[in-house]
Amino acid sequence: MSSNDWLRTRAISWMISFLYFDKLVQIPILLQHELSGLSYKEIFESFMNVSSDEYPIIAGIRDFFIEEARHIQNGGVEFHYSDEWLGIYWPADEFVYIRLTAEKKIYIFYKEIDKLFTSFHNKTSQNYSLDIILEAISINHSLVSQPFISNDIVVHSKYNIIEYWKGICEGQSVALIKGNYSYNLMRSQRNYTDFSQWCKEVVWWGNKKGAYLYPILRNDDVSSSNLTTELAGHH
């Protein structure tokens, strides 16, 4: 493998961790793959090939991963040190999540995700509704943990996206059905009023437990069986 190939491979590995395994964009990625027929390879490479003019946040993340890989290639350490955030070395994908949050760019990031997935729809056979993907992005955005947010909310959906996503993760066949669905998003259960504590307990401790996402429960389910914490083992 050439040095340039290694750089790109390491960078796209971080991109996949950030988008999919950290679950920041996992739901729409899964639906996009299932509904459009695009391969995961095509989807992830699209994030690596964005224009800096059209997608400044996503492109900035990609460029950061490439520079981190180059730093390793030149003899540097594998992790990114932050004196500001706990004074520890962070995996590159976790550092990006913290930085997006600290710089209040999460909303802009998801607007770019909307735009990119719309472009996927325009380039494919369009045998699926773009509304499904955009709704999946909105739900995923709402699920991602952020500090200084304590209010529980109700998320409405025209499709059973949560059950469909959960079914894919658990290897079960669940039909995607149009209807009226609502879910309780229980942000008060993971309320952080201190940024450093959020960095420690959500980003650092919670990465491998799926703690980046708030618990969510369908309104007509009186049990706790639909909590997203059940998906923590899907990495």
Give a verbal description of the structure.
- This protein has helices spanning 3-21, 26-36, 40-48, 56-73, 92-102, 106-123, 130-143, 161-169, 195-204, and strands at residues 80-82, 88-90, 153-159, 178-185, 216-218.
- With 235 residues, it is mostly helical.
- It has a three-stranded antiparallel sheet, covered by helices on one side.
- Helix 1 (3-21) packs across helix 5 (92-102).
- The radius of gyration is 18 Å and the shape is globular.
- The model is unreliable at 222-235 (pLDDT under 50).
Radius of gyration over all CA atoms, rounded: 18 Å
Uncertain ranges: 222-235
Number of domains: 1
Contiguous helical run count: 9
What is the percentage of strand-forming residues? 5-15%
How would you classify the helix and strand content by structural class?
mainly alpha
C-alpha end-to-end distance:
27 Å
The helix content is 40-55%
Spatial order of the strands in the main sheet?
A: 3-4-5
User: How many E strands?
Assistant: 5
Mean pLDDT: 89
H/E order of the elements? HHHHEEHHHEHEHE
Indicate the overall shape: globular
The main β sheet shows up as:
3 strands, antiparallel
